[in-house]
Amino acid sequence: MADWLAAIQAVCAPSVMLYALIGVCVGMLIGTLPGLTSTMAIAILTPLTFWLEPTQGFAMLIGVYNSALFSGGISAIVINTPGTPASIATTFDGYSLTQRGQGALALGINTIYSVLGGLLSTVVLMVAAFPLANFALRFGPAEFSILAFFGLTMMVSVSQANPVKGLLLGFIGLMLSTVGLDPINGALRYTFGNINLLDGISFIPVMIGLFGLGEMIYQIFTAERAEDGSAKTAAAKADGRVLPTLAEHILMIPSAIASAVIGVVIGAVPGAGGDIASIISWDVAKRMSKHKEDFGKGSLEGIGATCTSNNASIGGALTTALCLGVPGDSNTAVLLGSLMMYGMTPGPTLFTEQAHFVRNLMVLMIVANLLILVVGLATAKVSVKILSIRKEAIWMAVLLLCVIGSYALNKSYFDVIVMFAAGCLGFVFRRMEFPLGPLILGLLLGDICETNMRRAMSLSMGDYGIFVQSPLSIVMLAAIVLVLFWPLVGGKVKGAFKKKPDPV
Prior knowledge:
Blueprint: H1 2-11, H2 14-32, H3 38-45, H4 54-79, H5 90-99, H6 103-136, H7 141-157, H8 163-176, E1 180-181, E2 188-189, H9 203-222, H10 234-237, H11 246-268, H12 274-288, H13 300-324, H14 330-341, H15 350-353, H16 355-378, H17 391-408, H18 413-431, H19 437-459, H20 471-497
Antiparallel strand pairs: 1-2
């Protein structure tokens, strides 16, 4: 108990609260604007937090992460365009409520139930993380290498229904992770005589280039010439009461609790995320409801379920990422990169060597959600004005932050060059509809996978049997095979079991 009280005291420091509030506001801005993602916001802000204390820096990043997922529902409700992928299912009922003149109520439900999902998932994180990390401490080099590869394949397998492209970029990320000094014998690899590559390709500039600069170039090339009037009339649609009545809460609570459980479980699965969780939660809520006919037409149960599951997925994703060091999506991959920037090693050792910081992070999750509740409800009717910000202003601000962020970390012009190169590649990959997540995961997990694999081989004197000696290794290897081949055969399996239509 004394450890948790110390964590609460550290997080309640005025400077930490200020950075958390800044993160919440920035995340709200980014999440509301369609096309801008929470991953991009975290990637751009990460190097700017380098000079802060870890708790202060992560106060901002956790605030951005939680707030961006919540605020993606604002544009989904008002203009039927999800601000983030996790808010896709919010459009099912949110926009219908706006069309019925209940836009403000929908925004209030989005705020309250997103916070509910975030708080419930944080409780799960606080209860499950330390026991899971203690169990993972039993892993040896063989298990860690398989686990790292498992995380990579899980992400690649759900690469926007195109596993071949995902595997290709994942392989490129793995190749990039081999640049620099050999982790075992210190030999030079692929440096081409450039001393800037001795430490390998820096993760942060690549991340900023892919998700920041590349996204902005893509938006510039694909921007619509003519503006529609949806943003201009957004404020008028968000009129009326914001807070649900007690009867409405009683109606929404059962499906919201079920959605929170679904969000946590799906969020903990590497490769899944809030978008999958919210769609499944909406379907489950419809099956549970006594008013199934209202779903898709402005159901309060529907919007409450999707908003809850969005933010509930965060706690599940962080549980897997922090305990096992396996990022489940792009957001947690960037956050793990941020931990490494602060000199911390994600995984079970984090809970022994930096236990105080882990507790601080968990308390920060609660603080971020409480700030979202206050800010979200206070600005529910005016937050839609964010949608009227000119795209050009956003582009210039993001481009400037990309350059500053890539240079500031190491004060290296070479990192800026890497960022621009990654940005150009990110634009090309976006145009060709290649998912960017696998490349980042390959770069992040490649070194972990290679180092532990070679250590395992050294311990076994070159015997590959070390990778199938433990039951845990066998289970993870079987899961890897299933994940890699399921996208290829899953459709055929589903088709085989699909019920044939009755003859006429």
